[in-house]
Amino acid sequence: MINRSQAAMNTLSRRRFLKISASTLLAAGVVGRATAALASATTREPKCVREVPTFCDICFWKCGAIASVRDGKLWKIEGNPADPLCRGRLCPRGTGGIGAHSDPDRLRTPLIRTNERGEEKWQAVTWDEALEYIAGKMQKIKAEHGPESMALFSHGIGGTFLKHTLKAYGTVNIAAPSFAQCRGPRDVGFRLTFGEDVGSPERTDIENAQCLVLIGSHLGENMHNTQVQEFATAVGRGASVIVVDPRFSVAASKAKFYLPIKPGTDLALVLAWMNVIVTEKLYDAAYVEEHGFGFDQFAASLTGYTPEWAYPETGIDPDTIRATAREMARYRPATLVHPGRHVNWNGDDAQRSRAIALLNALLGSWGRKGGFYTPSSMDMPDYPYPPYPKPAKPKVDNPDHKYPFAHEAITTGIRDATITGQPYPIKGWMVYATNLLHALPNEAETIRAIQQLDLLVVVDVIPSEIAGWADVVLPESTYLERHDELNVELFKDPFVALRQPVLDSPDDQKPNWWIAKKLAEKLGLGAFYPWKTIEEYLEHRVTEAGLDFAELKKKGIIRGPRQPIYFEEGAPAEFGTPSGKIEFYSPQLEKAGFDPVPRYTPPVAGPPGAFRLLFGRAPVHSFSRTHTNRLLSDMMDENAVWVNADIARRAGLKSGDTVRLKNQDGVLSNRVKVKATERIRPDCVYLVHGFGHTARGMRHAYGKGASDAQMITRYKTDPLMGGTAMNVNFVTLEAET
Amino acid sequence: MRYVMVIDTKRCVGCMDCVVACKTENNVPEGYNRDWITEEVRGKNPTLQMEIRSERCNHCDRPPCVYCCPTGASHIHEGGVVLVTHEKCIGCKACIAACPYDARFVHPEGYIDKCTFCIHRVEQGLKPACVSVCPTHCMHFGDLEDPQSEVARLLSSRAHHSLLPQTGCQPHVFYLT
Predict the structure, then answer these.
(1) How far apart are alpha carbons A134 and A137 in whole angstroms?
(2) CATH code at A474?
(3) Are residues B106 and A235, on separate chains, in Cβ contact within 8 Å?
(4) Nearest CA to A189 among A344, A412, A310, A34?
(5) Which tens digits make up the pLDDT trace of B3-51?
(6) CB B45 to CB A645 under 8 A?
């Protein structure tokens, strides 16, 4: 059978393009004059091209980019060849970054709410009025409740200066969904095992892996640039790829072994793999002997987890489990079991991540070539700010260390405290560059929390859903129009990168550093901003590090010497665990009342006839924030619900039919098209995250596709670290006519 | 000289960077594209195979679009590159009907548009925009008649196919498998 899905994921096929263009030919004549001017600017000899190095912000990978401005107009953005992250090649989102600048749906001026929250009715105000209003409310919150009652949700490097202002003001409650809704369980699982995080960018040495194991990680669709480039390199030279996914992902199509696992049972598979590797003595005995702690207790606990035991749980037959375990052992230590990134799936996620860490430990891949390298960064001293005020109250998100292994703040913990007022009230939220209504599970709870607030400020580029609920909306310049904090990344090759404006903001948008500084001044905290301009700040930091600011401005990137990155090259084999070793058995977990070696519990089952809702990424979008970017929406302007072809046939559905999803709590989604495909198991359906916008200001994206976030009314909290597992929702398909 | 494109389907992940880059480089209007991604799935769940291809005009040796063009707008340029001279094009769409690859469209300004192999870049010694941005390095461009070229070496050493060879158009975009 041939399933030819042309024109990629776009809903308009090329034939449709043709039809539209033919029927609009007359109308085209009317606009012909306007576009002729544009066309003449693209003739073969560009007149005046100016190139500005900066770094990208369409996702958080922060690739070095060179933007070209032709005759005063932003023309294209290409990778900076000096950048070790992108190596001269951006991903489609980075290439499409110019659509962020020209997005007609952008926020243009500060806004103050005039009607009820969420009605999206605004009055345009000046920056001075907006900041005066915010400062007044913040002073009132401080006087009535203390500064800790103001919380900041911030995602990405652009939040640096707002964090600084809020810390100077006195809050301790600063969180990002990147922990409790994304990579937190992984970082906790690896920390408990190796004493260190995987980091971001992940310290995965994919390009040198001989065997790469992807558990749910859909590299290629998940477009983290360095990882995708290295994945292609590994595939190109014939590395053995093992993909575990209920969906036949792009990565699965490159795999030697594809394991279509029953959703939610990954831990059973990892335990069975470890059982085989230990039982058949295939592990790296010298490495385990030298670096391991508690191996015997660990090995003993695996006894029952045979491939035969795992078969009915996972749906993966024992022969395949054994064959893949042996394949991993065959290439060790250059076998990389990828830790994943968004790993909040079933509620046992920190323990599953720990099992993945342990599997890597058995294979001896941590610290080894083709496994996990040891990253380093440039030594860039912080700017000498005055000390922040000492907080009178502890953080609100994790009272009594209920989640003992949470090493970052829990967004949903702040949300809980906002709703209940316990352990103390939260009366103000500032939200920077994170659309909480799409990022946090159960939007009803988020809205309930918002209704308890005296102040909700949203700083964003686009009028997102969360902006729709704000009291004050502050329009930020895009990354192409502003400076930001330096990017000093922990990576294979140390470097420092500069973000600098390529061109001016089109309207009254302002860079985050300016907003943060002005707000601090309004709050009487001007002393925390001893510098006058951002360039002065950046130059100070760069010069203090012994580097040349003029060179950084010119090149965008300065690289430092590579340090040893593998144990075999002399990278220190040190582990920050209590035992100083790789903890196969974890006394820390035992002491806190948790399983010292991961133990399997079956996933929550859904109602009969319902499908588990899974979600993931598309290569042309980031989170829920790129859908009004016309270049990127032209690649994919709506999502489709993936339904197994047999299931669809039985339900009388075919690709292109419209349905609504109805979840276990009766919540109905937007209308969404069906993608009937062999590429997914019959017991689950799949959506690309970030679609189904309900914010009216996002005119271009409004109502297109379905939002997984809207369907995620339930979540299961990870007992170790407070992460919110979201693959615990079930939907049925309601046909639409 | 014979320009060809050689695309490694083993490496391609279908991310559409080639499509976006083409659009920015060539100012292709919203709603149109000169290249696109095709995913071809074979088999039955869970035993599946998928080939992902970045597709575009095949710059055929025997291009029906050129043969049917009443004004000579569609023509073969140096290196075998099939181009459309906008000023000569009357938008009659005969070429659209003739092209077996669906590679052409009517530009809102009224002429027929399609992939040019970024000949304006190639003539400056650059690679086509799609080739130069591809994060997986799956795309290659060069002169097939130069036996030392990367494209010639790839085609002589790797299994490959082209699209709809049975049409007799002799397409010159090749897919490594």
Answers:
(1) 5
(2) 3.40.50.740
(3) no
(4) A344
(5) 999 999 999 999 999 999 999 999 999 999 999 999 999 999 999 999 9
(6) yes
| Structural class in CATH, domain B3-176 | alpha beta
Amino acid at A520: A
Tokens of B82: 């099939």
Q: Are residues A252 and A213 in the same domain?
A: yes
Q: How many CB atoms sit inside 10 A of residue A693's CB?
A: 27
pLDDT confidence of residue A38? 37
Place of tokens 């993909």: A243
Is residue A72 a part of any domain in this protein?
A: no
C-alpha A723/C-alpha A265 separation (Å) is 18
**Cβ burial, residue B77 (10 Å; 0-12/13-18/19+):** middle
Residue A583 to residue A570: CA distance in whole angstroms: 22
Per-position DSSP letters for A45-68, written without gaps between them: S-S-EEEEEEE--SSTT--EEEEE
| Amino acid type, A720 | L
Q: Which two tokens stand for residue A30?
A: 């009317």
* Token couple for A627: 């859908």
Looking up residue A325, the CATH number of its domain turns out to be 3.40.228.10
Cα A625 to Cα A121, A376, A604, distances in angstroms: 21, 31, 31
Q: How many CB atoms lie within 10 A of CB A524?
A: 11
Radius of gyration of chain B (CA): 16
Query: Are A360 and A404 contained in the same domain?
Result: no
Give residue-wise pLDDT tens across range B19-32. Answer: 999 999 999 999 99
- Spell out the residues 6+ positions from residue A646 whose beta carbon is closer than 8 angstroms to its own: A682, B45
Q: Which residues pair with A717 in a beta bridge?
A: A724
Q: Is the peptide bond before A572 cis (omega within 30 degrees of 0)?
A: no
**Closest CA relative to residue A676, chosen from A650, A642, A724:** A642
Do residues A245 and A214 touch, judged by C-beta distance below 8 A?
A: yes
In a domain, A729, yes or no: yes
Q: Which tokens belong to B50?
A: 């998928």
Non-local CB neighbours of A712 within 8 Å, separated by 6+ positions: A441, A442, A613, A726, A729
pLDDT score, position A45: 53
Chain B: give the shortest CA distance to residue A518, in Å.
36
Contact assessment for residue B21 and residue A95, using Cβ atoms and an 8 Å cutoff: yes
Cβ of A248 within 8 Å of Cβ of B48? The answer is yes
Same domain flag for A132 and A216: no
Low-confidence ranges of chain A (pLDDT < 50): 1-44
* Sheet of strand A495-497: strand arrangement: A487-488, A495-497, A557-559
- Kindly state whether residue A73 falls inside one of the protein's structural domains: no
In three-state secondary structure terms, A455 is strand
Six token digits for residue A488: 């000093």
Residue A211 shares a structural domain with residue A315 = yes
Residue A458 lies in domain: 111-180+379-559
Q: Which chain A residue lies closest to B38 (C-alpha atoms)?
A: A6
Name every chain B residue with its beta carbon within 8 A of the beta carbon of A12: 31
CB contact under 8 A, A620 and B16: yes
